[in-house]
Amino acid sequence: MLKRIDVRHLVLGMYLHEFCGSWMEHPFWRSRFLLTDPKDLALIRKTNIREVWIDVSKGLDVTPGTAAVSREEVDAQVESELHHAGNNQAELPIDLGKDDALKPSAMSDELRRAASICASAKKAVVSMFAEARMGRALDTQTAQGMVDEISDSVMRNPGALISLARLKTADDYTYMHSVAVCALMVALARQIGMDEQATRLAGLAGLLHDLGKAAIPLHILNKPGKLTDEEFAIIRSHPEAGHSMLQPSSVHPAVLDACLHHHEKIDGTGYPHRLKGSEISVLARMAAICDVYDAITSDRPYKNGWDPSESLRRMAEWTHDHFDGRLLQAFVKTIGIYPVGSLVRLASGRLGVVTEQNGGSLLAPRVKVFFSTKSDLRIPPEIVDLSAPGCAEKIVGRENPAQWNFPDLNEIWSGLPERPW
C-alpha cells in the first residue's frame, strides 16, 4: 500500500517508492529503494522535496496518528479536479482574419508541416546555443522568426507541433525542448486570452528559457547517471547564466524575467531566488508548467519519459506546492486530459492512442484503436470519435506504455516515421 507523507516523518527502514515532484528537482539516481543509509535521509531533507510516497508493504509504516494520504485518495481527488477542468472547457474566440496560412488545418496536414518546422527550428536552436557558448549576443530577429513560425502552426492546429516536439531523443533533448516549450507557451497564452503581442512574448520566453544551459559542460548536461552535489548545483545555475547571456540583447524584460525565474515554485522552495506566489510573474509561472510537462514526458539520458496523460495527473498532485493552480487548469484545457499520444483503454476492452482533441469535450478525444485486450492481439486500426453522437465507447482508464511495449506507438498516432527531422 502506498502512502504520501511529509519528509519530516520519513525514517530509516521505510521503503521510498517515489518523490513527489519532477526527477529534475533532486539529485538521486533512483527513486525506489529501502531507506537504510542516514546520509540518504539527510540528503533528502536538505533538498526542496516536501513529500514522498512510501510503500508500507516493503518497509516501515508511519506511526499511528501521523498525517498520511493513500494513493486511492489522491487519485480520486486528482481525477475529480481534471474532470472538473474538462467539463468546464470554454473555447476562446480566435480571429483568423483573411490569412489563409492561419486557417484551421487538419491534424494530418499540420503534422507534416510541423515536422518541417521542427527540423528547421532544431537547426536554428543548435546554432543559437553555439553562438551563446562563444559569448555572442542573441540574434533576436532570427529568434522571433522561429517563434512566429511555431506560433502560426499552433494557431492552425495546436495539437500537431506540441505533440510532435515531444518525440525527441535524449541527444537532442536540450534543443527540441526549447521548441516544445515555445509551442506550449503559445498555446497556453491563447487559452488564457493573452493578446497577440503578449502571446509572442510568451513564445519567445519558452524558446529562450533554457539558453543558460549553453554554459553547462556537456558531460554534466548529458550525464546518464547520478549527479554529484557539485554537478547538481551547476545544473541549477542555468537560469542565472541564461539571464546574463540575454541581457546584452534587446530582449523584453518580461522574457528575461521568465528565463530567470522559470524554476521558482508557488510555495517559495524554487530557485534561484525562492520567490513565492504572486512574487513570480505570470510568464514565469506559465514557463514553469510548460517546462516541467515537456521535461517529464521526454526521454532523457537517465530516464524514459512518462506518458502524457500520466504526467498531467502527477503535475496535478504537485499543484499546491509547485504550480499556479488556475494556470495548470488552463494548461489541461490547452492539451487535453488525455493529450495526443496517450495510451488509453476503452470500455470495450480495446486499447487506443489519442490522435486529436475534440473542441467540445476534453473527456472525449479522437482515439485510434489498434489492440484488443480480450484476444490479446492487434486489430485493424480504426479512428473512434468518442464525442460523435451515438458513440457507445468511452475511456475507462490510462495505460502505461512501458508495460505494453508497443514499438510503433508514436507512429500509430502521428502517421509519421519516428522523429521525422
TrEMBL record:
UniProt domain HD-GYP: residue ranges: 152-347
Keyword terms of this UniProt record: Hydrolase
Superkingdom classification of source: Bacteria
One GO MF term: phosphoric diester hydrolase activity
InterPro entries with a match to the protein in the record: DUF3391 (IPR021812), HD/PDEase_dom (IPR003607), HD_GYP_dom (IPR037522), HDIG_dom (IPR006675)
Keyword Hydrolase part of the UniProt annotation: yes
Protein name according to UniProt: Metal dependent phosphohydrolase
